[in-house]
Amino acid sequence: MAIPINTELLDGCVLAILSQEDYYGYAITQLVQQTIPISESTLYPVLRRLKKQGWLTTYDKPFQGRNRRYYQLTPNGLQRLSEIRSDWELYKHQIDWLMKGNQDE
């Protein structure tokens, strides 16, 4: 059974990938799919939303006679990623605490 992925977590995954280097949409999908079962049709609206919020920019680059749209993290996107990472650490710690039966570490 797969655990549902919330929007903030998916945003964080995309922003984290793009914090390493710029990627085009299909490549981002492939990288996310290595860990999370997600379809391309789910990811492209996420990319558009992140761009609309100012966390990503895009540029086109020719590839084999056509253009690929690359996504790039903005400074605001990097700040958002930092916030999501902080939230994730707290959430992960709380879930670990519950799953371990409230045992002291």
End-to-end span in angstroms? 28 Å
The largest sheet is: 3 strands, antiparallel
Looking at how many chains there are and whether they match, the oligomeric state comes to single chain
Question: What is the helix/strand order?
Answer: HEHHEEH
Q: If strands are numbered along the chain, what order do they take across the biggest sheet?
A: 1-3-2
Number of strands: 3
By CATH, the topology is: Arc Repressor Mutant, subunit A
Helix count?
A: 4
Low-confidence blocks of residues? none
Protein name: PadR-like family transcriptional regulator
InterPro entries: Metal_resp_DNA-bind_regulator (IPR052509), Tscrpt_reg_PadR_N (IPR005149), WH-like_DNA-bd_sf (IPR036388), WH_DNA-bd_sf (IPR036390)
Pfam families: PadR
Domain Transcription regulator PadR N-terminal: 14-82
Description:
It comes from Lactobacillus selangorensis. This is PadR-like family transcriptional regulator. With 105 residues, the protein is α+β, with helices and mostly antiparallel strands. It has a single domain (7-98), classed as Winged helix-like DNA-binding domain superfamily/Winged helix DNA-binding domain (Arc Repressor Mutant, subunit A). It contains 4 helices and 3 strands. α1 packs across α4 (75-99) and α2 (25-33) packs across α3.
